[in-house]
Every structure is written in structure tokens, then in C-alpha cells.
């Protein structure tokens, strides 16, 4: 039974100062209407800033988009442009929360099946957001990007912060009790519910893959592997964000792979040098040492930037052990070469080199 990728992330959308400005987590976006247009690949008129937000060119990356509403919601809320302009109009206070955005990762076995992915997301959003909290939900299914992982099928769900009360917006509550929209307890319940829904959909299509909403620590698994670290480094580099830690991890992984290749090359040179002048062997050794010294660090320094979780000591110990083993192998090869040289007659040139 394989393990699929799980993701359910939630970000609060609130005003960030300035007319129409929207803050999504730590990132400041253009406006709420612009964000809805971008996610859905549509053309919307932002009444607050007086601009047309046209993202129809993104339609090739958008599989489908639709709005889900409570049964008592007004008919005008089915229009994406009217819905998000109304949300922006009612939330006038500086720093006001306008809504939330969910990012749901779809197992690629389901993402490639359009009917299965629509049924899965519709059912989960309708049950856990629209019916439970009485909010509007704008759902957009996205296919993988050209430069990323071709299994990255995912879905964006924008929800309003206010509930509907008949044909109008309801009054906001001052504080959020556990179980309310945006609370920590509700987020935990959402993650569990989304994992269960994904697994039920995977069983339905006959896939052996399963997802788990728990962290690796909670499941008693070891820290994330070096392969996952390297994947994160590549992803950050594609976005133009690269830290010293990313560069060190990538360089060390390349050094380990190169070191294995160099060990095999040196062993081959030792075998081929039997019964031949040692000049070829010495030259090959010099080349191998030069490449190794230029690329493989002799000592792994503690990184300046540390990822959360404290996993780097184990990785550093592993790399140092590999480097120490290569040092011992190189010493053994040099000793073998000295023994071979003592058995053969040698002729020295002007600078004392063996020829």
C-alpha cells in the first residue's frame, strides 16, 4: 500500500492597508476580487478599485471552477463578480477579515479522473464548509504546472468569513469559539475529515494509495529524508527563493553521489594499471583528487539557516561518515600503489616523475 501526498492548508484573507489591498498570510495581494479572478481564470470587475481583473489566459491551468452556496443564500451570490465585490463592500474596517483560502492536495490518481475529483471536493466542501458554517465557497480545480511535479493536482477554495442570514449577510461574532470557522479545533477536524474523504475516494476507484493527515513525528516515523530536502530546495530555487541551507543540502547530496562515482573510477584505474607503467594510474589519481577537493568539502560546517525540526545533525553525521569512509579507501589504494611500485623497475625524468 503506497502513501500519497496530503495537504490541507488554510490562510486568512484580510485587509492590508490601502484601498482594495489584501493580505494572504505574509503576502500582500492586489485585491480580493483579483484573487478570485486569478484562481478561477476569469475576468472580473473590481468595483472597489475600479479595475478590470482579467486572468482568462490562465484557463489552461484551471480545470473547472464553481460556487457552492447554502440553500437559503440569495440568487445573486451565484455570480462570482457580485459575490466577492459584496464581501469587499461589507468588510470596510481596516484589517478586517474578508475570508479564508483552503489549498487541498488531490491524490494524482483522483486528480487525473475529473469526475472523481469533482465529486470528492464538492462533497467535502458542501458538508464541512457550506452546510456546517453557512458560508459561500468559490472552488477552483487546478492541474499541475509545466515546471513542477506532474502529480500536483490541487484545489483552491475561497470562503467568505460572514455567513448568510436570509438574503443578506449575518452579523459577525466578536470571538471564535472552538469549532467555529477559522478556529484551531476546526482546522484539526478539517484535516482528519479531508484525509478520510480522500481515502474513501481512493478505495472507490480501486487505488492502493492512502493518505495520512498526521505529521511524521505523530506517526513515529524518522525525520524527513534527504530526498525530500533536495526536492524542497529545487522547488524554492524555481521560485527564486534559495537559502544557504538549501545550497548546502544540494551540494552535499551531489558530493555523495560524485564520491561514489570517483571511488568506482579509482578502483577501475587500479585494476587497469596492473602490468602497465604506473604513469596512467598516477595521472588518474591526481585527476580524481583534484575533482574531489574542488567539490567535496573536507568538513561539514554547521549551516547558517536551520529548518524547523532539528534534523540536520543526523544528516551531517551521515555525510561525514561517508567522507571518512572515502578517506580510508583512498589511503588503502595509496598503500596498494606503493607496494606495486616497489615491485616494478622505474625510470625517472628530469623532475623525478615516473614515466
Automatic annotation (TrEMBL):
A Pfam family reported for this protein in Swiss-Prot or TrEMBL: MobA_MobL
Top-rank taxon: Bacteria
InterPro entries: MobA_MobL (IPR005053)
MobA/MobL protein domain sequence ranges: 31-236
Keyword terms, alphabetized: Conjugation
Amino acid composition bias (Basic residues), ranges on this chain: 340-355
Renumbered residue ranges of the record's region Disordered: 325-355
Family label: Belongs to the MobA/MobL family.
Protein name per the record: MobA/MobL protein domain-containing protein
Source organism of this protein record: Oleomonas cavernae
